[in-house]
Amino acid sequence: MTEILDRLRLSRLGDDDLELLLLIRHFELKLLELYGRGDLNGTTHTCLGQEYVPVALAPLLGEHDHVFSNHRGHGHYLARFRDPHGLLAEIMGRQGAVCGGVGGSQHIHRDRYMSTGVQGESMPVAAGVALHLRRAESGVLACVYIGDGTWGEGAVYEALNLASLWRLPLLVVVENNGIAQSTPTTAQMAGSVASRAAAFGVTHHLVVSTDVNEIRTSLEEPVAAVRAGRPLVVEFATHRLGPHSKGDDIRPADAVQAARDNDWYVRYANDHPDQFHRLDGTIRARVEAIAEEIAARPPSRWEASSSWEAS
Amino acid sequence: MRVAENLNEALHGLLDDDPTAYVIGEDVLDPYGGAFKITKGLSVRFPGRVIGTPISEGALTGVAAGLALTGNTAVAEIMFGDFVALAFDQICNFASKSVSMYGSRLPLRMIVRCPSGGGRGYGPTHSQSMQKHFIGMPGLSLYEMSPFHDNREVLASMLERGEPCLFFEDKILYTRQMGQTDPMFPVRRDGELAIAEADDRPDCVIIAPGGMAHRALAAMRTLLLEDEISCRLLVPSRLYPLDVEALLPYVNGVVIVAEESTAGGTWGSEVAHLLHGRVWDRLRGPVRLVHSRDSVIPTAAHLESEVLAGESTIHHAVREALRG
């Protein structure tokens, strides 16, 4: 997505929504900074530029809905639980970590939220969960976040087939940021997400807007239909501002610039400067303080490792 | 009762006893009832909980994992065990990992059934023993069907583990009788271990999974009658993680592990390694391994029998071991 998709003025958000957007933004920026300083182990995938997707979806999903996230899932988690402490502790391997520091950035399970690090793997699992929900908890859905690159995996198609065939309450959210790691979508996808969904008789809904209010309004009815057993693919044409993981961005300067031009953060600051500046500094300082507090905690503990010591 | 009927009854019993139990797989619905008829009668009796799927092994295994994740009991059938390769990611990177990778234990009640092995002329891609490819995966247990282990009991043992289990079913067993042995070698049980022997001072101990047991018994008969060599057969139900402690009271002198897998990275080498570490001083030599050749499994009967380990391979190995 190199063109600017949406030049309209962004509508004004409630403070709560803006705070959540800013929390995710500053959380991700903080992670890159911590990595840069060598304070984090392994790797991470930030959702810079894509924060508005889970924020827009948040009120459309209930606490009983299952959410399956992927490798780029910090925003998904924060939008569901608003728990930067637990997530950062997980990523840093500190006490209070959501999963004891075992799963890390890509493998998180809490209540009905689960993320895994293998592309497309969650789709059949979510279909199984949706099958259970259709029978046992009518009106509840399973939501899976995938990317444009995920459409290279056969598991996606096997699961879409089942979802359509069995009329499963499955919501597939595609964050099409135009690039799979380093490979542009144009170099890895023939046809389109829309035509692939159509091939299975699954409804496809394209979102080009970055306006949270507008997105929510447009998705209310299609998401309600999912609950009644009409699976749906919602494709967000979005932009990955940052690198795939850390320091591995080889995109040409104009592609990065295009992503920046579409960034809700800059646009919202221009469109609603008073509200933005009132909250931005506060949230940034809050994330700063959280990072300091988490870094000072002792290492996380894993119950399995204590059983090895006992044996 | 034939082994296939015993397994079918076990599945009936599971669905009857557990209202959250599902059976899912390709062509499992009546009147077809599965490629090997193991699911016969289930879909008529339990409509809605027996689910026929498209030819999508990855997806059907993932769906089973999703059902298990939401608190159900899921039994997935892979039509031919060879196709479990198509579900490797769901089994090894999702289901088994999920048991522990989220920091605290997440129990999953899930069984993946794999009709396995050769001897029926199905050829290279429908005759393999895939057990060895799954050994050593944390959170994944491997069981093998046996004529000496009631399948209802084995299903219950697998589900009690609260982690995904692969159940390997040697297709040759389906048409054999439960409990069928040679009168010379009565079978008894010690916990989950089945033991067959003519006397309690055997010259050789053979450890074999369920599918190999009748071939081992046939070899034991000729060894005893023709060579006066007495063998003890040990058949564990769970192959991995192996309860090696349960084997120890019955293991000494000359020990052979016999399985149908082709050569290389076999279950037997894992068993040998475990035994060497514990009872090396009680062994007359290293544990010997009997397995099929390092080869694809041919279709034509005369070629297939050249490749697959069987009665004569075991017979030969025992004589070699005692001579050595």
UniProtKB/TrEMBL annotation, chain A:
Record GO biological process: pyruvate decarboxylation to acetyl-CoA
One MF term in the entry's GO annotations: pyruvate dehydrogenase (acetyl-transferring) activity
Domain of life: Bacteria
Keywords carried by this UniProt record: Oxidoreductase, Pyruvate, Thiamine pyrophosphate
EC class: oxidoreductase
Domain named Dehydrogenase E1 component: residues: 23-265
Entry keyword annotation includes Oxidoreductase: yes
Identification of the protein by name: Pyruvate dehydrogenase E1 component alpha subunit
InterPro entries: DH_E1 (IPR001017), PDH_E1_Alpha_Subunit (IPR050642), THDP-binding (IPR029061)
Catalytic activity, EC: 1.2.4.1
Cofactor(s) required for function per UniProt: thiamine diphosphate
Pfam families hit by this protein: E1_dh
Secretion signal span: none
Annotated transmembrane regions: none
Gene source species: Streptosporangium saharense
TrEMBL record, chain B:
One Pfam short name: Transketolase_C
Domain of life, source organism: Bacteria
InterPro entries noted in UniProt: THDP-binding (IPR029061), Transketo_C/PFOR_II (IPR009014), Transketolase-like_Pyr-bd (IPR005475), Transketolase_C (IPR033248)
GO BP annotation list: branched-chain amino acid catabolic process; response to nutrient
Cofactors, names only: thiamine diphosphate
Protein name from the UniProt record: 3-methyl-2-oxobutanoate dehydrogenase (2-methylpropanoyl-transferring)
EC number from the UniProt entry: 1.2.4.4
Gene Ontology MF annotations: branched-chain 2-oxo acid dehydrogenase activity; magnesium ion binding
Record keywords: Oxidoreductase, Pyruvate
Source organism: Streptosporangium saharense
